[in-house]
Amino acid sequence: MTLTVSSMRTPPALPGLGPQHFLSLPGARTVPVPALDAVTRAVEQTLTEQAVMCLYGDAGCGKTYALQTALASRPVLPGDVRICHLSPRPAPTPLVLRAELLLAAGLPIPPTRDPGVLDTALRTRLAAHPHLLVMDEASRLTTGCVEYLCYLFDDLTTQLTLILATSTKGFRMLRRQPLLVTRTTRWLQIHPLTPGEVRRAIPQLHPRWRDTGKDVLDRLDARHGHGNFRRWAQITHHTLRLERRASPPASALLETTLDGCLPPHEDPR
């Protein structure tokens, strides 16, 4: 099942603190764009079904942030689910992945390289409690590692839910893994913000843009932002930095600074 996030009206900003924004941007808030609601519902369904889900989209569009927000908003996970968050190193071997999974599950690595011993330790832990494994940059996984995750998921004794997050390019790579494709029940794509969503969401993201005209937001987004939350965090960071030196900074200086940090019309994927 492939899900896409459609454009709809963005509701008011959520109160309170959320997961860490890019650059630890001070004053930034969680904005409940449609993608956040879609991710929250998909995570709940995937946990309930103890299934496999793939979340994909352009780099910086907010996949990891949405996942962290969705999980943080749940005061009690169903069945006392334990969350393991892992970002694998590039092209790990199955042996390396075993070790990283043991650490993510809170287990010491046994003093052996015997795969059977490592497998037994990991399977025993995954059988004792329900676990949610959130795998960032999932396209880094080799075919052998994907097969190993499927092996753990298929084990009748384990209680494992898998959420794999990747870029749009990485999604195409994962779709070439038949063992994974046939086990994945949700493919959720996160799109960049549309111009209309940018006008509603960015003033909620940070107070700096609260009273900014739509024409300014449109111009900045068309040249530098591209509806991408990470790029907008950088735009905000550099704007605030320049304002600490001179308020307001000359528009030419801001454009020159942003051109150097965020090349105009650069494809962020």
Automatic annotation (TrEMBL):
Residues 49-168 form the ORC1/DEAH AAA+ ATPase domain. GO terms for molecular function: ATP binding; ATP hydrolysis activity. The keyword Amino-acid biosynthesis does not apply. SUPFAM superfamilies: P-loop containing nucleoside triphosphate hydrolases. Keywords: ATP-binding, Nucleotide-binding. Pfam families: AAA_22. It comes from the Bacteria. This is ATP-binding protein. It comes from Streptomyces spectabilis.
